[in-house]
Design a protein that fits this description.
2 domains; Nucleotidyltransferase, domain 5; homodimer; DGOK_C (chains A, B); 305 residues; 2-dehydro-3-deoxygalactonokinase (chains A, B); alpha/beta; 9 helices; DGOK (chains A, B); DGOK_N (chains A, B)
């Protein structure tokens, strides 16, 4: 028999939302997801999108508290949850939650804030801060950089539950833009996952690590390599990916310590980052993204009780 | 009375073509342009596009020699003009010309080769090599870097008419991609040429000069600055432009000498590059792009006679 749902945890991103039923003991009773990400909803549509997912996780329809992290709390989302400002203790996330009103009384929703940085380089995050709190809870005492690869990679300097500073690298988005819209697209049409991809990736990563200040100049080598050396699309895609990741990692190498860098993201992407960290004499360890977001939401909820 | 056209000079780019009638004494008798760039034509359409422009420059319809530089000589253009390989003497361009056949006997066309680089970073250029030859002819004895800002900026190390090496920076294309397609577009909608543009440009250029290895991380500051400090679209556009140009110039600063760097490109863009060079303790001088391409085509033609 399934454990009763005591509350609901939600990670509400720009393109989709993921929700979990949590039992009284903290067990996950079930999960559900929806394509109704923040980017697709107007303000008034959030309650119905949430109710729809809740009905799947708890068909009994009993009243439930819901704790939400991510883009639902953005200014253009459901209800703005003002940023905490780094440096800050992520155990403060719960205290910063906002409570949008639901049209019926069944669900009670709270949205966690994101974190901003105003000194030492303006930056913002929404969603990642909850993953970072979860990581801090699951790896007590960890101090050092955490890397969260993705469309907009986040690099945060953690000291226990404290976030000291962070920065965003537009690596994933740039890869997609260049692949889809730039002159390099001509060299990236065809089979991108062929046998040349690994070799291209290593060459690009080495170039990025060796000359991070010359990214603008190295990008065009994808095109020149295709024209002059007949580089195939798989090699070119690997080179571009490696060049961008190598450049990103080189920008942080001065702050990478002896401990493996926790990598929070999709498993294939984390493997690529771990490989480049190793090429640079460091190392990474992949952390399950779902596990840390759940741990973060649980910790935030515990602080709100 | 207009001087008789002795031959025709053509700069045939991807998006358009520009042509000049040249008199026996070297005077420009007239100019014409067409939207029929290489990128819009299939191989068989080049002769008619050329004849159309020639008829405007020389209505007499007498037989004419035409010397062409640029993308008409690309593999996907009219007829491939195989690259010269750098390092090379640009006075060799004429000897590398190819001669496509014209359907009627009125025009006799020759297309100059581009230049490629295989050692020390694969790269290619088509069109810029002719401008560089023109610059070398107009500034005899110049040795040092030449910067050609644009969609794909070229930086070439010249020693008289000899091109030692060169590299391409995808600066202009990246600006357009980020402005049009990336998450930064949200911060770049509205009046981009407002009074905040200069201030944003200076801030971005300084960031690029200070931390060229952190371009991926600095880009997102455009978005964060709009969210946190209410930066207006003009400031954001200036910051992005400055950041990219500052990063590009920083990558070359080790090779910039005491002499002003010749800047070949559009006047407004050259002014921005000159400003950032000055911020970095160097200087630039704008060179008229039409003047050098004409000088290059004339020098190449003289070598072919």
């Amino acid at each position: 028999m399934t454990e009763t749902v005591a509350w609901m945890a939600v990670d509400w991103g720009t393109s989709n939302l993921r929700a979990w039923g949590i039992g009284a003991s903290g067990t996950v009773t079930g999960s559900a997801s929806s394509e109704k990400g923040m980017g697709k909803l107007s303000g008034v549509e959030f309650p119905a999108a949430l109710a729809e997912v809740a009905a799947r996780l708890d068909p009994s329809g009993s009243s439930l508290e819901v704790l939400i992290c991510g883009m639902a709390g953005a200014r253009q989302g459901w209800m703005e949850a003002p940023y905490l400002e780094a440096p800050t203790d992520l155990r403060q996330l719960g205290a910063g939650a906002v409570r949008p009103t639901m049209p019926d009384g069944t669900l009670t929703a709270a949205i966690l804030p994101g974190v901003c940085q105003k000194q030492g380089g303006e930056d913002v995050m929404r969603g990642e801060e909850t993953q970072l709190l979860g990581l801090a809870v699951l790896s007590p005492g960890y101090g050092g950089l955490v890397c969260m690869p993705g469309t907009h990679s986040k690099w945060a300097l953690l000291d226990g539950t404290r976030i000291q500073r962070f920065t965003t690298a537009m690596t994933g988005e740039l890869f997609d833009l260049l692949k889809t819209h730039s002159v390099l697209r001509h060299s990236l049409q065809g089979t991108l996952d062929g046998p040349g991809r690994d070799e291209g990736f290593s060459a690009g990563a080495q170039d990025g690590l060796d000359a991070p200040g010359d990214l603008l100049g190295r990008l065009f080598r994808v095109r020149a390599g295709a024209l002059l050396s007949g580089r195939e699309p798989d090699w070119c895609a690997g080179y571009l990916s490696g060049l961008l990741i190598g450049t990103e990692i080189a920008a942080h190498r001065g702050q990478i310590g002896a401990e493996p860098v926790p990598l929070i993201g999709s498993a294939p992407l984390c493997r690529l980052y771990a490989k480049v960290l190793e090429m640079d004499g460091a190392s990474g360890r992949t952390v399950d993204a779902t596990e840390v977001v759940l741990a973060g939401l649980k910790a935030a909820r515990a602080s709100m009780e």
